[in-house]
């Protein structure tokens, strides 16, 4: 197929997809013309992406393509880097989070994050999960107890830790720590959960457990997951976005991307020609 | 053409190796020198003083009669001093460290404060004594009481706490802060609930080392005006007091007059060294136990 | 009836379940509405912490101001030149004379003696620990050095007065019971750990690649140390010397106890001399009445002392920075 027609098809298809998204499901995140610079380096270029609620959206791409950077703009964690500059709009449920009047702490209460390397606090398991509710003002022990149990169950780790809630979280294995971090995230009942390569530091069995968890969680939450493991994206996500050099090359239903990608670069990446 | 004559090199090698071995011995001796002195010092102090330590010695108050003299006043004075120094230096030191590590922009103000702390660390202790005398004892009209001495010593050891706290805070990994921010915590909430608890062992080590320094210094308190003669055992921070090193000082300089004073001084030194050893061991224990937790 | 009870039971548990249903999101939203206090705290904390950090600056300012104001008062009574060139110091009594040279010589000579001990022994110790000692030996010896560094100076003073002086007197004829030699030596011993530790740090940070390069050319360990490591670490080493000097200048108790209070302007180390620091202790010990020249002389001497140590400390920092090898 000639390149021009292909590109036109791609544009139509993405537009159709976004259209469908608007019709069937609510859009939870709408990124408009998002550009980001680390100092002089142009890390994200004109990102336009609409992400639906109650879906698992995967973001794939080779190292350095900007996928981690992108996900960190969604909860403004990227602001922790001093030299960063952002332009464009990021609409979370119709509100632009880049607006100065938008309080970043409110955003992060509704948008949780699970990091690549499990990072529980050097506190007890209970205190780890109770951290979020506590800092947001919940002090009642009975309520906290309930939240802790509910979150640990939600992260499929309750049975393993219910008898040792007061033990230090560092005593858990890597996979357990990551599920603890997910529980910690669930404790404040966020709306969206961002996951930045959550299983890349875990063994295969723990990885599987986390992937199962993600499938369950999408009933209640919207999940955006960055992964460099394409098979994982294919397994668990509903939609996939392919990033390359800071741009979105293609964004479509996962089945479609992995079977009949529209862009040649997507195809090359998926078939392993580079990456 | 060869520039390096292997025969010449071979000839010289002998003397070069000899020099090397001699040097090694010399360096080793130098290292031992310090240790030998340490051993001799401890031996002398124990020899002169150990025999004089008993419950009476610890519990009695000062007396011009060497047989009846005791260091109870100095012991309580030392404890009272620690009671003032510890909280003051901890609040000032940790507060400064938090500001420098978490809030201050990397700029002129930050490096100015850091340079200032370095310079304070190098000021002779007598000069701190002068500061204490002029400002706390006289201008604030406290007199040579526990509070005046405590504030002076707290400032003297402040750099120790600042540096130790800075290092402890720096050692807290960034990913712990990220986890906290990711849940919508504010900066102060993150510092209070995550960073400080994680840095606590390092901070405590610093405070203990600072305290051990504070109770071992003599000059500042002598300058502030702690007298040699009978002092009441302190009951509060507005009471006059003395500490172990000051007691050692007065007994030592009078030992030319009364020979037994040298023994009393030595005995007090033994007690002081035991206290300092205990404090430093606790600090090292804390440091070792909590190092590399992350 | 039973059926009704059963239904009721079902309804009851359903209702109870709903009541129990936790809506954390809502709770948090509600709490956030009453959260204005938190904002206030969040903005206030950095200001408070800055104030605390500023206290250290105020301390320095306090020291400087205190010294300057009273020193100026002193120089109203005693001319600048007389003070700094006067070889006579008789602070007490009717015809008090205030020349600082006796104290300066006391300080400088005691420092000189101390560094003659501390520099060679300290540097050699550092070389041994850094270049020659095995890991086990290092681990065993370093803590002992730190103990030496942690001994309070009053203990060293006692040691100098009751042990070192009698010892020296037994083979140096003419050594007075209070003299400057004995405390000078003991001060040097006290400073050894400082020089050793800082120099060793400087030498340890020289990369092994440099040592290996020299060894591969057939150099002996001594040659590697002397010609490669020490030059590479020289800025840290010299900085340690300068810091040691600063320490010696500021040391009080050892010289106060062991060197007496003679204010003769002399260079004879077997005699008693007084240092600037010992003078301060002596005068404050005597409860000098505020407002007298004697009282002000305290501050003038302290000011001189402060300036000396400040210069040394700044010099050490400068040397560290300027000549630091970039690896």
Automatic annotation (TrEMBL), chain A:
GO MF terms, alphabetically ordered: ATP binding
Name of this protein: Phosphate ABC transporter ATP-binding protein
Keywords recorded for this protein, A-Z: ATP-binding, Nucleotide-binding, Transport
Alphabetical list of Pfam families matching this protein: ABC_tran
Classification via InterPro entries: AAA+_ATPase (IPR003593), ABC_transporter-like_ATP-bd (IPR003439), ABC_transporter-like_CS (IPR017871), P-loop_NTPase (IPR027417), PstB-like (IPR005670)
Domain ABC transporter: 29-270
UniProt cross-references to SUPFAM superfamilies, sorted A to Z: P-loop containing nucleoside triphosphate hydrolases
PROSITE patterns attached to this UniProt entry: ABC_TRANSPORTER_1, ABC_TRANSPORTER_2
Domain of life of the organism encoding this protein: Bacteria
SMART domains: AAA
UniProtKB/TrEMBL annotation, chain B:
Transmembrane feature ranges: 21-46, 71-100, 120-140, 146-169, 190-211, 264-286
One Gene Ontology MF term: phosphate transmembrane transporter activity
GO annotations of cellular component type: plasma membrane
Keyword set, alphabetical order: Cell membrane, Membrane, Transmembrane, Transmembrane helix, Transport
GO biological process terms on file: phosphate ion transmembrane transport
Location of this chain's protein in the cell: Cell membrane
Main location: membrane
Chain ranges of the ABC transmembrane type-1 domain: 75-283
Keyword Transmembrane helix: yes
Topology in membrane: Multi-pass membrane protein
Pfam family, one: BPD_transp_1
Record InterPro entries: MetI-like, MetI-like_sf, Phosphate_PstA
NCBIfam families associated with the record: 3a0107s02c
Family the entry assigns: Belongs to the binding-protein-dependent transport system permease family. CysTW subfamily.
Protein name: Phosphate transport system permease protein PstA
């Amino acid at each position: 197929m000639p390149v021009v027609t292909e590109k036109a098809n791609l544009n139509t298809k993405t537009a159709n997809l976004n259209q469908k998204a608007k019709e069937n499901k609510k859009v939870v995140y709408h990124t408009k013309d998002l550009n980001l610079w680390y100092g002089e380096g142009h890390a994200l270029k004109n990102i336009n992406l609409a992400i639906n609620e109650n879906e698992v959206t995967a973001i794939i791409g080779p190292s350095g393509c900007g996928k981690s950077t992108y996900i960190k703009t969604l909860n403004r964690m990227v602001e922790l880097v001093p030299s960063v500059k952002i332009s464009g709009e990021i609409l979370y449920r119709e509100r632009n989070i880049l607006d100065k009047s938008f309080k970043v702490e409110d955003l992060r209460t509704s948008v949780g994050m699970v990091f690549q390397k499990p990072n529980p606090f050097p506190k007890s398991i209970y205190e780890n999960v109770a951290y979020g509710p506590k800092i947001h003002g919940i002090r009642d022990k009975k309520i906290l107890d309930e939240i802790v149990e509910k979150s640990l169950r939600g992260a499929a780790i309750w049975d393993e830790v219910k008898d040792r809630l007061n033990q230090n979280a560092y005593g858990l294995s890597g996979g357990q720590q990551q599920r603890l971090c997910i529980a910690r995230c669930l404790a404040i009942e966020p709306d969206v959960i961002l996951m930045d390569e959550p299983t890349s530091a875990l063994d295969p069995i723990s990885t599987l457990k986390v992937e199962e968890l993600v499938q369950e969680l999408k009933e209640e939450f919207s999940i955006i997951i960055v992964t460099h493991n394409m098979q994982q994206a294919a397994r668990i996500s509903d939609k996939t976005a392919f990033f390359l050099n800071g741009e979105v090359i293609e964004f479509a239903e996962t089945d479609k991307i992995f079977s009949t990608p529209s862009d040649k670069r997507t195809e090359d990446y998926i078939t392993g020609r580079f990456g | 053409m060869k520039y390096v004559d292997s025969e010449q090199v071979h000839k010289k090698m002998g003397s070069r190796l000899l020099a090397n071995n001699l040097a090694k011995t010399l360096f080793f001796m130098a290292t031992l020198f310090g240790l030998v002195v340490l051993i001799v010092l401890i031996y002398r102090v124990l020899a002169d003083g150990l025999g004089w330590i008993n419950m009476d010695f610890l519990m009695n108050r000062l007396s011009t009669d060497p047989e009846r003299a005791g260091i109870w006043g100095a012991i309580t004075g030392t404890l009272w001093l620690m009671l003032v120094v510890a909280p003051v230096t901890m609040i000032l030191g940790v507060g400064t460290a938090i500001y420098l590590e978490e809030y201050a922009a990397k700029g002129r103000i930050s490096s100015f404060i850091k340079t200032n702390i370095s310079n304070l660390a190098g000021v002779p202790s007598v000069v701190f004594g002068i500061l204490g005398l002029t400002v706390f004892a006289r201008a604030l009209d406290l007199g040579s009481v526990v509070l005046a001495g405590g504030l002076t010593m707290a400032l003297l050891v402040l750099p120790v706490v600042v540096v130790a706290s800075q290092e402890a805070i720096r050692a807290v990994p960034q990913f712990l802060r990220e986890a906290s921010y990711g849940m919508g915590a504010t900066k102060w909430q993150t510092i209070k609930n995550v960073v400080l608890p994680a840095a606590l062992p390092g901070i405590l080590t610093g405070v203990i080392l600072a305290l051990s320094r504070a109770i071992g210094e003599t000059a500042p308190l002598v300058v502030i005006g702690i007298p040699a003669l009978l002092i009441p055992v302190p009951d509060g921070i507005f009471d006059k007091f003395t500490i172990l090193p000051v007691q050692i000082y007065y007994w030592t300089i009078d030992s030319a007059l009364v020979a037994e004073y040298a023994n009393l001084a030595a005995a007090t030194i033994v007690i002081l060294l035991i206290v300092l050893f205990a404090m430093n061991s606790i600090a090292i224990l804390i440091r070792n136990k909590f190092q590399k937790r992350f | 009836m039973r059926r009704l009870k059963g239904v009721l039971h079902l309804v009851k548990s359903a209702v109870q379940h709903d009541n129990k249903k936790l809506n954390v999101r809502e709770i948090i939203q509600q709490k956030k509405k009453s959260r204005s206090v938190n904002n206030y705290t969040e903005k206030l904390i950095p200001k408070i912490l800055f104030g605390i950090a500023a206290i250290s600056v105020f301390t320095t300012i306090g020291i400087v101001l205190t010294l300057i104001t009273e020193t100026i008062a002193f120089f109203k009574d005693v001319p600048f030149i007389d003070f700094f060139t006067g070889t006579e110091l008789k602070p007490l009594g009717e015809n008090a004379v205030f020349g600082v040279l006796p104290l300066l010589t006391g300080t400088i000579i005691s420092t000189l003696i101390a560094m003659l001990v501390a520099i060679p022994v300290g540097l050699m110790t550092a070389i041994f620990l850094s270049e020659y000692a095995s890991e086990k030996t290092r681990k065993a010896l370093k803590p002992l050095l730190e103990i030496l560094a942690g001994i309070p100076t009053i203990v060293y003073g006692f040691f100098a007065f009751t042990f070192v002086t009698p010892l020296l007197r037994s083979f140096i004829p003419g050594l007075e019971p209070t003299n400057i030699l004995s405390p000078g030596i003991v001060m040097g011993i006290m400073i050894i750990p400082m020089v050793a530790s800082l120099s060793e740090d400087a030498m340890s940070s020289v990369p092994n690649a440099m040592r290996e390069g020299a060894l591969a050319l057939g150099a002996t360990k001594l040659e590697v140390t002397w010609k490669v490591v020490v030059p590479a670490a020289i800025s840290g080493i010299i900085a340690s010397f300068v810091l040691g000097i600063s320490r010696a200048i500021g040391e009080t108790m050892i010289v106060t106890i062991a060197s007496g209070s003679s204010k003769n302007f002399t260079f004879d180390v077997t005699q008693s001399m007084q240092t600037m620091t010992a003078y301060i202790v002596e005068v404050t010990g005597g409860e000098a009445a505020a407002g007298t020249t004697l009282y002000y002389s305290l501050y003038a001497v302290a000011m001189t002392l402060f300036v000396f140590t400040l210069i040394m400390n700044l010099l050490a920092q400068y040397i560290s920075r300027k000549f630091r090898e970039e690896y």
